[in-house]
Amino acid sequence: MTTTNVGELIDRARSAAQLSQRDLANATGISQSTLSRVISGDRPAKWPEIVAIAIATGYTIAQLTGTSTVADRVQCAARATNDCGMNQMQEALLYFLELDAYLDDQAIPATV
Question: How far is Cα 23 from Cα 61, in angstroms, rounded to an integer?
Fold first, then answer.
């Protein structure tokens, strides 16, 4: 994972979410100048920034960092009910699995 690659991946996610850099900066609380430096590869993104960008763009942390994805390691079978499509269910499941993986990486214990 290089700084430039992460910046490119973040910029693709920003564009796909139809957000300007200023819109993404406002949505994440990251200054527009910092976001610009992250996208250009002049500054590495910090994990809390990547999490905020993931939430704002609807992308996973793995998608923004180019690291091995939880989705690559997970197989699931489910039955869609209540007019919920499989894609929606998969996105929701992957969101929570990515969050769980992030908390594990940060050594934040799960609560019961």
Answer: 19
CA 30, CA 46: separation in Å to the nearest integer? Answer: 11
Q: What is the pLDDT of residues 71-92, one digit of tens each?
A: 665 655 556 566 666 777 777 7
DSSP state of 44: P
Residue 112 parent element (H or E): none
* 47: phi then psi, degrees, rounded to nearest 5: -55, -45
Cα 34 to chain centroid, rounded: 18
Exposure string for 97-107, b = 16+ CB within 10 A, e = fewer = bbbebbeeeee
Enter the pTM of the model: 0.61
